[in-house]
Amino acid sequence: MKKYYFILGALQSVIAIGAIPAGYGLLSDTSGAGLGMSTEMLANSPIDSFLLPGLFLLLINGIANLAAAALSFSRSRYAGYSGFLLGIALTLWIIIQGWWISLSSVLQPLFFVLGLVNTWLGWKIIRSVIIKNQVLP
């Protein structure tokens, strides 16, 4: 089971390393120009700047995944829950992003898969903790 915690922590670290600079870049310039994007990409979305995506990237996909990686590496009892919830958040983030701005980068399917794997690993850890803590009659 130790390997699941390590793999989950490594994936969460990769996600955070990708999200923190991107989120910071979008918050620094909400037009997206600093990252080679344009607000024209947001034409089919309910938002008109990259402020909210920048906040989500920095706080949820970035800092929260970094904190969750620390939980995973220390094999905290909350590691599975954080992996499961942040995996769902990342997966939904990519689905919504694809819906609003379409497939515009090879990173979108990659991070979609990372979100699914995060969710699965979180679920595996949750199940193993529940089974381990069950009192049999």
Weakly predicted, low-confidence segments: none
* Rg, Cα atoms, Å: 17 Å
User: How many domain modules?
Assistant: 1
**Structural class given helices, strands, pairing?**
mainly alpha
First-last Cα distance? 25 Å
Largest sheet: none
Number of helices: 4
Helix fraction bin = over 70%
Counted beta strands: 0
Please trace the helix and strand order, writing H or E for each element: HHHH
User: What's the average pLDDT?
Assistant: 94
| Beta-strand content | under 5%
The coarse silhouette is elongated
Question: What's a quick, concise take on this entry?
Answer:
The protein contains 4 helices and no strands.
Report on this model:
- The chain is 73% helix and 0% strand.
- The chain is an all-alpha fold and 137 residues long.
- The protein has one domain.
- α2 runs antiparallel to α3 and α3 packs antiparallel against α4.
- The longest helix has 27 residues, at 2-28.
